[in-house]
Specification:
single chain, Rossmann fold, seven-stranded mixed sheet, 7 strands, binds S-adenosylmethionine
């Protein structure tokens, strides 16, 4: 059985693609979080190279479903990684878009303790994933979003915070993750309910991050490197 100490030596992730996988510290956070909260049934949208899927399965030792239509673009490396890690028996890959696969899971009345959203990062893609995940997650269960540096993710998170009182936000030590818990069985809003969810602070933060990425030799980046060498 592969251990958490061995897994990074097994996962083959190309050096040329640093953007796709969750970071190791984020994967370790997911692992520890699952261990600390009675989480058994898990679902993931966005498989990438299978890093998050591997850490999730190492933590639960139970079946895990990952939805991803584009594994052929990654040479099915996630499947190879999961097989090499000895985790394949617990793994189901649904090779389809989440907007097709998630309603199917709802129809089958599937329920999960933990859903990780890291697929299509466009605003409407994340919102649709959240919408179905909110029905698929058990009351008391968790939804974790990746890439909160992105404006799209932030806005979905803010929408939920302002409008979905059946969910509660939990603070997370890592800035790029956002964790919510389903605390009521039903969404009790009436049809007219709506609260604005624009966030000026996160807009400013996003502008700063993209500016620093686009101008790595600029004045702001130099100032940043003085404070964070
Ligand atoms: C950032 S990567 C996921 C990384 C992965 N969680 C990991 O840690 O290794 C995003 C993944 O989402 C997938 N994806 C993009 N659009 C999707 C959609 N509509 N439904 C499901 N997956 C999607 C991509 O193929 C890609 O593998």
């Amino acid at each position: 059985m592969t251990t958490i100490e061995q897994i990074e030596n097994i996962l083959q992730i190309p050096d040329t693609d640093k953007k796709t996988p969750v970071r190791v510290e984020e994967a370790k956070f997911i692992y520890q979080f699952i261990l600390g909260h009675k989480i058994h049934k898990t679902l993931e949208i966005g498989l990438g190279y299978g890093r998050s899927a591997s850490y999730i399965m190492l933590a639960t030792g139970k079946p895990h479903i990952a939805i991803d239509p584009f594994q052929s673009h990654y040479g099915y490396q996630a499947i190879k990684n999961i097989t090499d890690a000895g985790l394949k028996d617990n793994f189901t890959h649904i090779e389809d878009f989440s907007h097709f696969a998630l309603p199917e899971l709802c129809h089958k009345n599937e329920k999960f303790d933990f859903v990780f959203i890291d697929g299509d990062h466009k605003f409407d893609g994340i919102l649709i994933d959240y919408y179905f995940a909110s029905m698929l997650v058990k009351t008391g269960g968790y939804i974790l979003f990746h890439d909160t540096w992105m404006r799209s993710t932030r806005l979905v998170n803010k929408f939920v915070e302002q409008n979905r009182h059946d969910f509660k936000t939990h603070p997370v030590s890592l800035a790029n993750l956002h964790l919510i818990q389903k605390i009521q069985d039903n969404d009790t809003r009436d049809g007219m309910y709506f609260r604005e969810f624009y966030t000026t602070k996160s807009w400013l933060k996003y502008r700063l991050i993209t500016h620093l990425n686009d101008h790595p030799k600029g004045l702001l980046s130099k100032l940043k490197s003085i404070f964070r060498p």
